[in-house]
């Protein structure tokens, strides 16, 4: 601001200056959105802000600061020693080579450090000063209470909601009538798929209709299972589309045509090598060639690569316009899944002026191998999605090993086993046996899914905390430290680990094979992992259903107390703001049912 404009601003009436500042602040919110500078959680209304430097603090952080127990700004001590590459031989059971220092974009977390905010305290009268510069503030101002919406907006909305619930006698989704589920009695021909063998459980079977058989009334059937936190599998969804090819070279040519016309070609992209869990740059056309033909390293071991979010999900429909239309057309239960026009997807309720989260579509293109290798498998490790997800398997390709490669793979698996027994279990065995315990018919399958029930999360985390040193990650090195067993995304539970999990803690996931054309619905808050049995192209879309918005909010609360540098720390979904706009829209529709936009 120039000196002249500054003098003009100071001459304005005080009340007008306050109004002017609030208007500027409101438009700044619309353009950029606000998040707490302390815990990185999105702010949708009341919060505190510094008038001198615009440092923002959510009300939860304010309460914790006054209680002397600030949770949202924990730091992690980063080990100054970079990850050391032990050499290619180590990956296959040999001794470590001379270390080669290699920096990768992954921090070795030691432990949360609690003393960073000791110098930041609330004043005796409850006011909160702006934190020092070392914590992102200016250290000078006093945080002022700010609001984004009109003062009476939230109380009025709450009152209207409660009145409408009474007037319309809304059904409680948790108490849906049993007759909504027509397959609960396991009659012949029921669209069910067995996915678990848990004793004393009535949810070992998952709802699995064929897309062409879904009728308008089946939405309630879907909701009956979905409201109970169960995954749903819809088969043959590609049969409902025009039949556009998802062959990799067809996608490559479509991508090349669009990028050549408007953006220039992207010849190389980063791909993840599943053996050492490091990124490499790969030519896109070459990647797709190996997708169908296979690739092996100099030891004869399958070189498994995964290309995630290519192109970036924000550009998917721009770079693949025809495939984008085809994917949307394939989605079942569009009342939930349509990315722009559906009344049960809360993510579409955000106003156009708001910065919206990236909900997809996004692709995952990966090589695959039917046999469980034990290391270097084509996997998406155990994790949570930020919201509900529907994942469609659009293409598969089988790469068949010849007898020579099969023999080399078996020899290397024996060396891997011996190395694991020695390093992970302290057992020195010269020639351990190799076993294959995949208990599924994998011939027609593309990907093997394990999805855990929400109520089993605590036991799952306990198992991982107990045994985390028996897993490998970067450079195939054993894990040494752990921040969070699921948010770290460093674990894949093999068949043997799943057996031990059930033996020690009595839990098991829903496990099933995703076939070509299957759409898998994963509820928010269900930890899950995937192993690709063939080369696969999968396309996923995030959405937020009314049934699971509470689970999304609970995930957000978990995110905010993670260490500041953690990969999952940022609140990218902004589900609280999303829920607010969704409730506002629903109340308006119920109060004015005859109005049209």
Describe the protein:
The two termini are 41 Å apart. The strands form 7 sheets. Strands 12-21-18-23-16-15-13-14 form an 8-stranded antiparallel β-sheet, with helices on one face. The chain has a domain at 229-545: Cupin (Jelly Rolls, Sandwich). A hairpin with a 4-residue loop joins strand 13 and strand 14 (278-283). It contains 15 helices and 23 strands. The model is unreliable at 1-32, 77-81, 103-115 and 435-439 (pLDDT under 50). The chain is α+β, with helices and mostly antiparallel strands and 597 residues long. The longest helix has 23 residues, at 403-425. 30% of the residues lie in helices and 17% in strands. The chain has helices spanning 3-11, 14-32, 59-66, 153-168, 218-226, 248-262, 284-293, 316-319, 321-330, 334-337, 403-425, 457-467, 495-505, 549-560, 575-591; strands spanning 34-35, 42-43, 47-49, 56-57, 75-78, 84-85, 100-101, 109-113, 144-146, 192-194, 205-207, 232-234, 268-273, 278-283, 305-308, 362-366, 379-383, 388-397, 445-451, 510-515, 519-522, 528-532, 535-543.
